[in-house]
Amino acid sequence: MSDLCIRTTNDGDAVLGSAEVERFASGFRGQLLTAESPGYDQARSIWNAMIDRRPALIARCSGTADVLRAVGLAREHALLVAVRGAGHNIAGNAVCDGGLMIDLSPMRSVWVDPKARTARVGPGATLGDFDHEAQAFGLATPLGINSTTGVAGLTLGGGFGWLTRKHGMSVDNLLSADVVLADGRCLRASEEEDSDLFWGLRGGGGNFGVVTSFEFRLHPVGPEVLCGLIVYPFDDARRVFAGYRQFVARAPDELAVWALLRKAPPLPFLPETVHGKEIMALAVFWAGKPAEGAKVIEPLRTFGRPVGEHVGVQPYTQFQSAFDPLLAPGARNYWKSHDFSSLADGAIDAVLDFAGRLPSPQCEIFIGQLGGAMSRVDPAATAYPHRGANFVMNVHTRWESARQDEECVRWARAFFQTAAPYATGGVYVNFLSHDEKDRVQAAYGDNYDRLAALKAKYDPDNLFRLNQNIQPGRDTAPIAAAAVR
């Protein structure tokens, strides 16, 4: 390789001579890519097409030794460094302009111990990778709702999915993590070893180092479960919300019901007259014996006049990938999100207003039901703080052409502002978009000061800054609701 000019953390440039680049490459087992390399554009492309950045060097790591070497190079020259796992990364922090991109996506191993009911997972694994191995033994852990989601980013931000009400969050089922720190050490963090770091990893994002392996507790799930969709016409949405709100307030932990509002895709169980029209769907998941769940969910069919239903016993892996087509890579995406303790009338009014004027056919609003097991964990027990949120709403704005950017972003921001008075002020850190740095403190809540102290201990120079960043040990003002944009 020739000389490389790489951006540094102080917005300057470091020039790595060809001899130094060759020395680095000689001890690197993975793949190194520059702008001239075949595969460079594919490696720098991420799920959100709004993010178009060009790293000076991409280090595609094959294992922990490669990660240690890449972090060492970044530390020695104070390089701007981005860390990529797998999955969606709405904010685009996985890739940087002009810096070093540490790409963990080749590290996709999943090793399951069915006797101990544990799994050790690489940082490049997706939920699909994980479920493929764990479901061979009828096991799972709470890890989101899309097979294309990355295990690493999901977990480091907290992680929730269909199993959360029954078995807690992803971080509640994390047993240990191997971490490469900014100073070059590699630690295994757990409740017994480096417990303060382990606390911070469970919700503090990628602020403290590069995790090269996750160990999870597993639970018996499936391989077949009762789940599916009940779809209502948009005209019935207010009635459905009224029934939904009362029903989920009494729901057992085994049941998760999420609400989704969007234009109907051409699903085979929906009549063609509904395709492309606004609908409200209830996504149902029962984490128990299907025969028992069938009785519990029966009232969900009475909230309105369903136009279609696809609920039954099916493979867990099938439902985990059911929504993948709605999240295919290559589209432009912008998210806004709120946490709610309850669904007030005003919040429902806002949802119905904006769901009735979606700016593109791919836009959607989903409300995920939380609570249950996750709410019975002390908010200070892990870095993830928002244990009192019973619902999370994601305004998932999605479109194809850059010509629609202004219209779609404006719609999402207006919806966010209208719903804000009914929200808790907290937010799930993994749902923050690239322009929401003013909400980072709200994402970490009352745990922010402790996280800042932890950042000062493990990454005092803020080498790992391309994330929803926690400043090392700075004085923090009282946490207030983020400014509305």
Structural class: alpha+beta
* Share of residues in strands: 15-25%
CATH architecture type of the largest domain: 3-Layer(aba) Sandwich
Quote the distance from N terminus to C terminus: 45 Å
Assign the CATH class of the largest domain.
Alpha Beta
What is the topology, as strand order, of the major beta sheet?
Answer: 17-14-16-15-19-20-18
Approximate helicity band: 10-25%
Shape: globular
Number of strands: 20
What's the structural domain tally? 3
Number of alpha- plus pi-helical segments: 14
* CATH topology grouping of the largest domain: Vanillyl-alcohol Oxidase, Chain A, domain 3
**Cα-atom radius of gyration:** 22 Å
Low-confidence regions: 475-485
Q: Whole-number average pLDDT?
A: 95
Layout of strands and helices, then pairs:
Elements: E1 4-7, E2 13-16, H1 18-26, E3 31-33, H2 40-44, E4 57-60, H3 64-77, E5 81-84, E6 100-103, E7 110-113, E8 118-121, H4 127-134, E9 139-140, H5 151-157, H6 164-167, E10 174-180, E11 186-190, H7 195-201, E12 210-217, E13 219-220, E14 224-233, H8 237-249, E15 255-263, E16 278-286, H9 290-296, E17 308-315, H10 316-320, E18 332-340, H11 345-355, E19 364-369, E20 391-399, H12 405-419, H13 440-444, H14 448-458
Parallel strand pairs: 4-6, 5-6
Antiparallel strand pairs: 1-2, 3-4, 7-8, 8-12, 9-13, 10-11, 10-12, 14-16, 14-17, 15-16, 15-19, 18-20, 19-20
